[in-house]
Amino acid sequence: MPDPTAPPPSSGVNHRAIAAWVLVIIVAAAAVAVTLASRPPAARRTVTVTGSGTVQGAPDTMTVDVGVQTTAASASAALGENDVQMTRLESALLAHGLTRAGLQTSNLAIYPNTNSRGQVTGFTVNDTLTATTHRLGEAGAALDAAARAAGNDVQLNGVSFSISSGSRLLGRARRAAVRNARAAALEVASVSGTSLGAPLTITDEGSPSNPVVFAPTSFASAAAVVPIQKGTTSLSVQVKVVYALG
Asked: What pLDDT sits at residue 222?
């Protein structure tokens, strides 16, 4: 008669061994998963190119440095006279199409005048405005009015013409720059035996213009109306484009 307290006979399956193998498989799978997760993704092949576009056009902006120089026995007298002349000059410019937003003080200096023995003989005040206008048709009359308002004390320190950032020419130059960049990228892809993918990033590198600049001059021998010839100038744009390679 079998002993009721004896353990049941073995079915031939070692459950502890099976559990151990399962644990080993789980640990191995986890190790593989960690290895795959820590492996960096394959680097994406790209090419970076720079394209430029330049267009020619008529300037739509004029910038001029115009000011007044006064001399007096004292600094306060020289400054007071300068204030009067500059007020007249500003009023003349404002009356001929310029705006206060287009007028900015770019230089104000007071310095003593001395003789050969180093003695102070008086003071000179220089005050300069940088005036910007888009109304080029009135620019000559504005400068003439400024000269008449300030008299012999007026000084013209230079005139330049440029194309404003809002011009449609800027859009044309930018489109030309993008086309130029794509052409360069296609050439690189062809030489390297790959195909050119879509652009990943496009960076506008800026749009510096090449202004026409006139040298400083004096109004002493100017005509009744200062002649303004704006001519043509160029506008350049550069873009940097990163393309994917197939």
From this structure: 43
Whether the Cβ atoms of residue 218 and residue 137 lie closer than 8 Å to each other? no
d(CA 143, CA 125): 21
Which residues, at least 6 apart from 20, have a Cβ–Cβ distance to it below 8 Å?
A: none
Tell me the C-alpha distance between 225 and 216, whole Å. Answer: 17
Instruction: Name every residue whose Cβ is closer than 8 Å to that of residue 227 and which is 6 or more positions away in sequence.
Output: 140
Is the pTM higher than 0.90?
no
What pLDDT is stored for residue 218 in this prediction?
44
Enumerate residues 6+ apart whose C-beta is below 8 A from 94.
100, 103
Residues 167 and 157 in one domain: no
User: What total number of domains does the chain contain?
Assistant: 2
Q: Are residues 168 and 205 in the same domain?
A: yes
Contacts of residues 170-175 at CB distance under 8 Å and 24 or more positions apart, as own/partner, are 170/207, 170/235, 170/237, 172/53, 172/55, 173/53, 173/54, 173/55, 173/207, 173/235, 173/236, 173/237, 174/53, 174/204, 174/207, 174/237, 174/239, 175/53
Residue 170: predicted pLDDT: 84
- Both 181 and 241 in one domain: the answer is yes
* Structure tokens belonging to residue 45: 């092949």
> Among 82-91, 162-171, 191-200, where is mean pLDDT lowest?
162-171
Same domain, 219 and 98: no
The domain boundary, picked from 106, 140, 162, lies at 162
**What is the average pLDDT value for the chain, to the nearest integer?**
81
Q: What is the mean pLDDT of residues 82-100?
A: 93
